[in-house]
Amino acid sequence: MLPSSDRPLATAIVVNYDAWTETVELAGRLADSTAARAGRLDVLVVDNASPAPPPPVTQTWRRLPLSGEALGWGELASATSRNNEPPRSLIWWLPRPINDGFAAGINAGRRYARSPWLWVFNPDVELDSSTIEATLDWLERLDHNRHDHARLGIVGLRLTNPDGSTQPSVGPFPTLARVFRELWLPRNQRKYHPPERVDRGRVDWVTGACVLIRTDLLDDLGGMDQDFFLYHEEVALCRSATDRGWIVWFEPDLRATHLHPLQNRPVSTWLRVILRHSKLLYFRKHRPSWELGVLARLIEWEARLRPWTAPARDRRAWRSILRLALRMRRAEVRFPLGVRVRHLADEAVGRPIPPAERVDCRIDSVHPRPRGPFLGRPGSWSQPTSPPTSTTCHPASTPPPESPRFSR
């Protein structure tokens, strides 16, 4: 094992939004592990402006400044009596002023990571100590053979349901042909390969509920794409990584339990707006324009027909989806991105947006973002030579009244 003063192998990042019970349990289990106490694993909770107050246990966590000006990890690296500290004190906490999505939370956490790998979690993931140790051992072996695996950038774990059955977690890249095929499949089989057909090896994409990401990969891509508020951001990450020559890998010997996957839950009206937006945005960024046009037309027809049978409370949301499809099909420049997507979904179901939470967003285009590496210190993000082709927001500090918990 590495001594506590050495750089850890991985930084566990748990992105939380109003799921404090699950977040505290997962972060505590990670911090209690032998790997964390030996300095092989750092634990960081990123809270995206949860409306509920944090529980008392967070008072023992080490709070990081949002700006990243203070190098909090320096304290962690220089701690020589780490094994004698209370387990909860090994948890770092980054409270953020706005809920602008899962990808934004990961990017914020990455600024503080001093490890070659990020281990990204949804709060509703359970894993035992043996899985933590096995994963760190696997990364250590990989690190020792770095020259043979230098381009291995994303690793997906095998996910299981609470009953022990294997959960779908690996899928093919979306195409228009697959969209039509998925129309005839049950919802829990649409995005993913059947688990029994997935073996160890190279894959298109893995779910972001529990995934290992090399920090060099994020630096190469300029971070995860924050234009996606929720869902499809991990697919877009894997697509961009593959295009840049990185390898996405599935490792079935590493396992975790995912309690509430999207495919096992009913889709709310609010979430339907988010999902349609994410799919349209993925096709605009990563598929040919003619495929985007057909998909937008398909969603447009759906949004015109579904209100005839939908409850009255859902019709406003379908009108919002219709406007999204029309804007995308007509290639309009102004298109909601990032936090504006959440605002759109809130308005679609009649949730007011507090005045203090209304942000000044300038939307230029939705082409892939310019790539720019992270710099070597927390909080520093190198600016590309041209302006980012994405949403530029100036957030306020008031959190929204409601938003879903982050769960794949």
TrEMBL record:
SUPFAM superfamilies: Nucleotide-diphospho-sugar transferases (SSF53448). One of its GO terms (molecular function) is transferase activity. The keyword Transferase applies. Residues 397-408 have a biased composition (Pro residues). The keyword tRNA-binding does not apply. Residues 372-396 have a biased composition (Low complexity). Residues 360-408 are annotated as: Disordered. InterPro entries: Nucleotide-diphossugar_trans. Pfam families: Glyco_tranf_2_3. Signal peptide: none annotated. It comes from the Bacteria. Keywords: Transferase. PANTHER family: RHAMNOSYLTRANSFERASE WBBL. This is Glycosyl transferase family 2. It comes from Isosphaera pallida (strain ATCC 43644 / DSM 9630 / IS1B).
